[in-house]
Structures are given as C-alpha cells and as structure tokens.
C-alpha cells in the first residue's frame, strides 16, 4: 500500500516527538555534554546510550507507474536510550522505532522528492508536481543500532551493535520501547520506585541533534536541569505524563529523566515548538514492557559498586568511596569514569578520626590523674613523718620533766590513704602508733580503643 506525500505532511501537528532526522553525513557524530550537578552527571552518564534508527522504503511514481529507483530511500534518525538490565536490555521512547510515526513519513517524503528532482524527473518538474506524483510504500523497514559509550561498557572503546525491538507502544499509547543488544555486563541506571513530586528537581539526559553537527565525536550526552511542572494525562485520562520545565531538543527522545539520586523517573517523549515545555512518559511504562518480557530491571554488581562509591564520595565518606570504586576498577580496569571518581575520593583530606582524638585525650587524663594521686600520697607521707617526729620530741621532753604520763590507749585503726582531699587520717587520743606507709601502685589505664573512622567531608 502506498501513502501520498501530501497526506503525510498534512498529518503533522504542533506536538513534536523529539526524534531527530539526521543527514547521512552527520548521523555518526555525537554531542558533548554540558555542566550539571557533578553527582547527577557521575551517576547517570554510565547508563546512557546513543541510537541510530534507519528507516527505508521504496518510492512509486504514479505518473510513470514505476518505482523511481531500484534502490530504496533511507533516512536516519537519532534518539537516546538507557540500560535497564546489564544483559543488553535498553529502554527508549516508542516513537523512536515507530515506522508509522509522522515525522518519519515526512522525512522519507522530503528525501524522496529531493532525490527525484535531481535524479529522476526531467528538467522543469517542480517540487509541487513531485508532491502530487510520488507515493511511498506503507511497509517502511527499519534497522536500529545502539552505540554503547565507553562509560557504559567500562572499556576504553565504544561499541555499535544492532538492536532488536522486543516491544514498543506508539506515541499515543504510552511512547515506550524495549530493545535488546547482544552484550552483557553493561553499566546501567536504576529505576525510581516512587513517583516524583510536583516541583521536584530533575535532570533530562540525551543527545540533542542541534549540537550533533557542530561538536566532536565523544558520546558525552547533554545534562539539562529542570523541575517537574505538573502531572497531566493523555488518551482521555488513561495515560499520565510529566510536564517538564525544559526546552528539550530533537535527538533527546528516549533519554532518561532522573531525580537527584540518578534514578530514572521518566522517558523523554515530546515537546512543543517555540515553547520551554516538554513531556516525559512515567518510567512505569518501561517497567510494564520489562515485565511482559520476563526481565527484571536491575544493576550489575559493578554498577552498584560504582553508584555506592559516588554516593559515598558525595557524602564525604572517603574510605567507603575508595573501597567501592576500587571494586569497580578491579572488574573494569579501563573504566575511566570510575578512575576519575577514585582520584577525587583519594584527593579528600585525611583527618584524625574522632576515636583517635578521644583515646589520646583519655590517656592524657589518666596520666594526669596518676601523677596527681602519687603527689598526694607523697605529700601525705611527708606530713605524717613530720608529725611523728614532732610528737616524739614532745614525749621526750615530758619524760624529762616527769610531770605527766600518757594513759594506756588502744592502737589507732589502720586508715587507708585516699588520693583526694576529702579523707584524712585523724589520730585517736593517746600516743601515736606508727602506721604502715602505703606505696602507690603503678598501673596503665585502659583507655578507649582507637577506632578508625572517617570524618564527613563536603562534596567536591
């Protein structure tokens, strides 16, 4: 079945799906990223992929009753996706792979008319006449290719792999798609379990085509901050969508919209021309497709360690950040993202832990107490000796005079010397009885055990 060019062009409305038609010369180039919160960038970049979708069809001339070429017409589009399972499962927007999507059909017609005017029609045929004459085959073919950046593979080199479309819903039915590439051990993104609140800070991530033709090929996506403006519905209230305070560009379709923890809350879907309003489909659509395919959304152990390391780094937990990121490097020695984060963690200042400080203070206190106690005992001995000497002299003087005799007395009870001033020895009436001299017993205080713990540092 053939579709007329005019009919397809008339079907295009004001709402624009954020796929991007790419000329063949520019289709393989990729944009660079913009600065955003370091934490979100670090958490999100290792899970974002670049997609090229090639749509192919044959074009029929109604006037000449023939196909205008033996070769089909092909147009490439670009989109964004993200890893939802380490075994090669990729989420993206449904319209990115929809062969009947209006922008795809229009792009095929534009390409067909331009080619026919230059290579098929004789001179004098106008674009208007070509529009009336040409039809395209309704059964448009597609090929999907996913480019895995080095951050996703944990390697030094990117990989472009063909992808199968496992399941998809159209723009009007939820705009979600699930792709599969033959790969394993991929780094990915976690899916948020809770719906975002209105006004919550979010970041949308993708490869805008407006940048694509002017920047070097480095596969670093753009990170665009914004907020959740509202939650709306489409399809007579059946399908919720998030309204975003962002002017997202073509090519970002299918990319993740994430919260401040790098968890995906939605899939970039559509925008309006000349406005700063865009929409994202809730991540629940992707969860439904995964469930239907019998696949769990999950992270690999390496991706989990990377996230834990970045989160610990953000919280200033130096030791934990280093421990987790070293696990990543052990599994992926050429993972530059992990190496960069590990370098930042190692650059955090190392300070004496609170446990060490407490132990040192306690040791000092015990030492001071021991010295003070020994000094008190020594002072007591000196005083006791002086008193005993004085009394012996006094007793000798009395015997010499013969004027008084001491009555018999019971020996004074033994007294324990105290280290504090509250307890003093008071002799009973009668002559003093020599008391054994107490010697201080040396000891080593068992202060608190030194605990090695890292103090919190600010995010850097």
Rounded mean pLDDT is 77
Shape annotation: elongated
Q: Which structural category fits the helices and strands?
A: alpha+beta
Strand/helix succession: EHEEHEEEEEHHEEHEEEHEEEEEHHHHH
Proportion in helices: 25-40%
**What is the CATH-assigned architecture of the largest domain?**
Beta Barrel
Give a short account of the largest sheet.
6 strands, antiparallel, barrel
Q: Indicate the low-confidence ranges by residue numbers.
A: 1-15, 23-36, 355-360, 366-370, 393-460
For the largest sheet, list the strands in their spatial order. 13-14-15-18-17-16
Distance between the termini: 60 Å
The beta-strand count equals 18
CATH class of the largest domain: Mainly Beta
Question: What can you see in these coordinates?
Answer:
The chain is α+β, with helices and mostly antiparallel strands. The protein has helices at 5-11, 38-44, 102-119, 127-133, 150-153, 209-212, 284-292, 301-314, 318-331, 336-347, 354-401; strands at residues 2-4, 15-17, 20-21, 48-57, 59-61, 66-67, 73-85, 89-92, 134-137, 141-148, 159-169, 176-180, 201-206, 222-234, 239-244, 256-258, 264-272, 278-282. The strands form 3 sheets. Strands 13-14-15-18-17-16 form a 6-stranded antiparallel β-barrel. It has a 6-stranded antiparallel beta barrel with strand order 4-7-8-12-11-10. Helix 1 (5-11) runs antiparallel to helix 3 (102-119) and helix 8 (301-314) runs parallel beside helix 10 (336-347). The protein is elongated and about 80 Å long. 36% of the residues are buried.
